[in-house]
Amino acid sequence: MVNIAILGFGTVGSGVAEVMRENAQSIAHNAAEEIGVKYILDLRDFPGSPFADWMIRDFGLIESDPDVQVVVETIGGVGAAYEFTKRALLAGKSVVTSNKELVATHGHELLEIAKRLNVNYLFEASVGGGIPIIRPITQCLTANELDEIYGILNGTTNYILTRMITDGAPFADILKDAQRLGYAEADPTADVEGYDAARKICILADLCFGKSVDPEKISVEGISRVTLEDIEYARRLGYKIKLLGRAYRLPGGHITAYVAPHLISKTSLLSNVDGVMNGIVVHGNALGECMFYGAGAGKRPTASAVVADVIDAVKHRKARKYLGWDESEPGYLVDAGDVRTRWYVRTGSGLSDIGRAFGDVRLISYPGEYPGAGPGEYAFATPELTGRELAAKCAGMEVRSRFRIL
Ligand code: HSE
User: Fold this and answer.
1) Ligand 1 neighbour 377 (Cβ under 6 A)
2) Which of 10, 111, 212, 389 has a CB 3.0–4.6 Å from the CB of 328, allowing a cystine?
3) Which phi-psi region, left, alpha or beta, contains residue 8 (left: φ > 0; alpha: ψ -120 to 50)?
4) 197 CA to middle of ligand 1, Å?
5) Considering the entire predicted model, what is its pTM?
6) Domains (ranges, CATH) in the chain?
7) DSSP readout, 334-346?
8) With a 6 A CB cut-off, is 296 part of the ligand 1 pocket?
């Protein structure tokens, strides 16, 4: 019998306790031994909870209990979660987490501690919720040189963009709905402004390309400036607007990573990843392209990935799983503004200004043709330009939106 402790009894932590109890038999079969929850750490009271007997408030009890071999960290953030993770690893326990902020920020350090202590630090649930993506990258695809990874990494923003497209309602209205339905947090900043997706693409870039990418150092743009006009122009071009996290190799061993809204072709698989679902595309030199699709958030899908990691940690008590990356180097991360891409631009400037700056571009729509378009408004697609080149060309123009085209 192996004992575990759960830190944090919020949405994910309580999901883990539920799945552990509900699937106890099959989990024991898959792990080749029984796994029991011995403690649940939370400062709050949960009267009447079926797990009330396991509740404690003192992490020291878990840290000093040799019976506890795996700790599940579902507290979130980089405060207590960071301290308790470090202490648990240093006490010789494996740690499993869904905490993308902690993995993206301190993953390198925590994995180094785990390596030194010959224990595991596993985080399948930190990207894509219940979608298997960490293991495929670190196990199934290791024969490849991976050169690109991108995807829809945030369920809340994908839900909002999908409803803007299907209902024709503006961002602010759909955000209120998403909050009412429990998809978006009361403070939706991390989702809406792209920070959550930034943490996830950095973890994926760390694993795919082998060096740390700091989420504070990549360019991050959320969806709050996507308008119904942009969605309509994109539709006319045969595209949908989706928030993507994207990282890829550049010549010379450099990489770039960023989060931004993109126009993606309606013929691509990713364009059909709608609502709260996530989709992640990986490109490898032997495999070609491969897409992972599924529930990227939510109590039980996330618990599914956490509990699978618990089983793996139990099965690998004596063998460390290889998981890790090196520290970054100066010049390794290239600013996304210096990388060429095609752009969609919506502008209030006239045709002569557009022609002067861009030459003969492909106009998407003409003024007055779409009722939402303001007078004298044009939208067009550019050839490949860096973000800086685009900004220089647009210097004298009134730009209302500009998004990358994938
Ligand atoms: N807030 C996140 C999302 C939860 O909407 O995708 C999963 O990381």
Assistant:
1) no
2) 212
3) left
4) 8
5) 0.95
6) 2-130+299-315 (3.40.50.720), 134-295 (3.30.360.10), 340-405 (3.30.70)
7) PPGGGS-BEEEEE
8) yes
159 CA closest ligand 1 atom index: 5
Q: Specify the residue for token string 């490949």.
A: 384
Q: Is the C-alpha dihedral spanning 16, 17, 23, 27 positive or negative?
A: positive
**Nearest atom within ligand 1 for CA of residue 191:** 1
48's tokens: 């009447």
Which atom number of ligand 1 is nearest to the Cα of residue 200?
8
Q: From ligand 1's centre to the CA of 119, what distance in Å?
A: 28
Cβ neighbours of residue 163 closer than 8 Å, sequence gap 6 or more: 169, 174, 177, 178
Spacing, Cα 151 to ligand 1 middle (Å) = 14
Q: Is the CB of 101 within 6 Å of ligand 1?
A: no
Residues with catalytic function: 200
* The three-state (H, E, C) secondary structure of 122-146, written as one string: ECHHHCCCCCCCHHHHHHHCCCCCE
Q: What is the pLDDT along the chain (406 residues), one digit of tens a residue?
A: 999 999 999 999 999 999 999 999 999 999 999 999 999 999 999 989 999 999 999 999 999 999 999 999 999 999 999 999 999 999 999 999 999 999 999 999 999 999 999 999 999 999 999 999 999 999 999 999 999 999 999 999 999 999 999 999 999 999 998 888 877 777 899 999 999 999 999 999 999 999 999 999 999 999 999 999 999 999 989 999 999 999 999 999 999 999 999 999 999 999 999 999 999 999 999 999 999 999 998 899 999 999 999 999 999 887 777 789 999 999 999 999 999 999 999 999 988 999 999 998 888 875 555 555 556 788 999 999 999 999 999 998 999 999 999 9
Q: Does 154 sit in the ligand 1 pocket, CB within 6 Å?
A: yes
How deeply is 1 buried, as exposed, middle or buried, from its count of CB atoms within 10 A (0-12, 13-18, 19+)? exposed
What's the token pair of residue 239? Answer: 């595209």
Is the distance from the beta carbon of residue 261 to the nearest atom of ligand 1 less than 6 Å? no
